[in-house]
Write a structure and sequence with these properties.
Elements: H1 22-33, E1 37-38, H2 39-42, H3 48-55, E2 59-62, E3 66-67, E4 77-78, H4 88-99, E5 103-108, H5 119-132, E6 137-141, H6 149-156, E7 162-164, H7 174-177, H8 183-196, E8 202-208, H9 214-226, E9 231-236, H10 253-266, E10 270-274, H11 289-297, H12 301-305
Parallel strand pairs: 2-5, 3-4, 5-6, 6-7, 7-8, 8-9, 9-10
Antiparallel strand pairs: 1-2
């Protein structure tokens, strides 16, 4: 579906099912009670109702809710951060226990005001969850941390189960879409993580519908594979507000199916592709074998109480 004029009407397949059942309301209340942020809310994720109400999963956004970057696709607030709560890792871990999560995604606003880009707080959050919920697998989704090797080392020393950093778009559109981050630096971060931890699944995502060509998408696949990325996510860009970049076109479900087939044929171990696919969507299905075995050996307390295996 191509763009006509200044507004492109959403196609029928992009209708989102709203479900505000007790699980959804319970998770929302817990987030407010623990003074925690989620990218689900801050970035206006279209899957929030499915994840919170049906899959009972959430993506925690640490390091506050004000980003130092002003990417032109993102709804997260931009400005000068004032919040750095070193007790946040423990609150996140406590919430993981209360929510009985089997898999958790931890992301953050970009914190270019911090020397390590927030890597220390990421690492402490991983360690806190490990202590309090050892049965839960952990995925991290940080910024590029300006490509600083010490920051990458700090984060990876805590041994997340999945490392995720998004390339976001094709090379040609990067300067128009992203602020500060560069295409090549993102590739370098992904490659460095794989060098440090060869057995850790590495993931990256792109949005389509910003004016890229199919050939550019395929080149991005090749670039990610060349830098040892295992998992790719391809989703439709949705304009958060009229102030953000316009949607140039909507891809059909059939086009996403084709892109998924191509990605898998090129060598990705897993590809999530669809109109509403996002980097943390169905993330629990992408955990590596080693982490999955550990998870299966450590049963959540609620399951022990119910006598389940």
């Amino acid at each position: 579906m191509e763009k006509h004029g200044t507004y492109l009407r959403k196609p029928d397949w992009l209708k989102i099912k709203i479900n505000t059942n007790q699980d959804y309301r319970g998770i929302k209340h817990l987030m407010r009670e623990e003074r925690l942020h989620t990218v689900c809310e801050e970035a206006k994720c279209p899957n929030i109702h499915e994840c919170w109400a049906s899959r009972r999963t959430a993506t925690f956004m640490i390091l506050g809710d004000i980003c130092t970057r002003g990417c032109r696709f993102c709804a997260v607030k931009t400005g000068r951060p004032t919040e750095l709560d070193l007790r946040e890792p423990e609150r996140v871990a406590d919430s993981v226990v209360k929510m009985q999560l089997r898999h958790v995604v931890v992301t953050a606003v970009a914190r270019d005001d911090l020397n390590d880009g927030g890597a220390y707080v990421f690492a402490e959050t991983i360690r806190a969850i490990r202590r309090k919920a050892p049965y839960c697998t952990i995925e991290v989704l940080p910024s590029d941390m300006k490509g600083d090797d010490d920051s990458i080392l700090t984060l990876m020393d805590a041994k997340p189960d999945i490392f995720d950093h998004n390339i976001e778009t094709v090379r040609r559109l990067t300067k128009r879409v992203r602020a500060i981050a560069t295409y090549d630096r993102s590739l370098a971060v992904l490659k460095r993580v794989k060098e440090l931890s060869p057995n850790t699944p590495v993931k990256s995502s792109i949005m389509v519908g910003l004016g890229e060509t199919k050939e550019e998408i395929l080149q991005t696949m090749d670039d990610l594979l060349a830098n040892h990325v295992d998992i790719m996510v391809i989703g439709q860009y949705l304009q958060p507000t009229r102030k953000h970049l316009d949607v140039v076109r909507y891809y059909s479900p059939e086009e996403f199916d084709e892109l998924k087939e191509i990605a898998l044929s090129k060598g990705f171990k897993h590809c999530e592709a669809g109109p509403l696919a996002r980097s943390s969507y169905h993330a629990d299905e992408q955990v590596g074998e080693e982490s999955r075995r550990r998870h299966d050996e450590l049963i959540a307390p609620s399951e022990n109480e119910n006598g389940t295996e």
